# Entry
Amino acid sequence: MGEMVAGIMTGPEIERLIQLLARLPGLGPRSARRAALHLLKRREALLDPLARALTDVAAVVKACHVCGNLDSVDPCSICADPRRDTGLVCVVAEVGDLWALERSGAFKGRYHVLGGTLSALDGVGPDRLNLNGLIQRAESGAIREAILALDATVDGQTTAHYIADRLSGTPAKVSRLAHGVPVGGELDYLDDGTIAAALNARRPA
Amino acid sequence: MGEMVAGIMTGPEIERLIQLLARLPGLGPRSARRAALHLLKRREALLDPLARALTDVAAVVKACHVCGNLDSVDPCSICADPRRDTGLVCVVAEVGDLWALERSGAFKGRYHVLGGTLSALDGVGPDRLNLNGLIQRAESGAIREAILALDATVDGQTTAHYIADRLSGTPAKVSRLAHGVPVGGELDYLDDGTIAAALNARRPA
# Structure
């Protein structure tokens, strides 16, 4: 029998699907309903493949034991790639940040994924982050330079300070991403902090 | 091995999942990546249940042979509900429109889902819509009144005209949703057509 949830008379299976879709970032209740109908109208082309893709991902994707990246192989494709600089390690908060750096094509070293940032507000302490692996990699001498690529937010910068501190006793040199005007950015729309940072870090033209 | 698609070095399973998620309405490539990571961080709480929900929906949800609604039972819960007026049938383009009417709680009759609207531009003719079932329901005398609840767009109104024409030889009385000022709507933001329709259909206060 169908049942009433959120005012819709439909099967419990559809309701359950809508509720789960609504928990994805970027989808609210309304767009989750649209997505569910979109899937139901495209069973062979989309619904079945998506169900399979989710099952496949759950079965094979795991965290790399070296760097914390998500991949179907362990060590991950990046840690296993001999063409990438082993000694240059970019420290990021989340796998999404690693993906953003990879899309830029500007980095040819390895990574270390923390799995979050320190946050007093959310009660995230150093023990909740993938930090010990980073310290061990640095102490073993495997890291020539650790580039802290963390968000320019309070939590991101707190985390950067903490990690710089922890790495200070190791052979690893520690650096950070530069602040400045985003490429394509208009000065008129930039916040004062960014303009000040770009002025301070000015370079010969 | 991981592979390069869209600039991301990751497993092919994750890439496939992102590509499929990006085909949902409301999700682009960027939000599909965020959704995939969100799922990977919540395997037990979200990824596994979503995979199961999709499989369940694909297994049990079907179109009602009477009205075209989607449900896990056939006839659907609405067609099978003895408390609803059998002779009052609301004709809608899509199941999403049926859901919208159900959420309003204002309609206690049955439905007929066309599965789309006539569209010269998209080459959708009467044969592509679930029309024969509606004509048969009307000819059998089962429909006292057919309320055409179609979008107030060119295609929606063309479809309404066509259906009114086809039903004119049957015992069914045909009506339409009223045009007017949306509840909570501000006159200043309404288009001229709506204001004119609301004026023409004015009622004693």
In short: The longest strand of chain B covers residues 88-92. Residues 43-60 of chain B form the longest helix (18 residues). Chain B is about 40% helix and 15% strand.
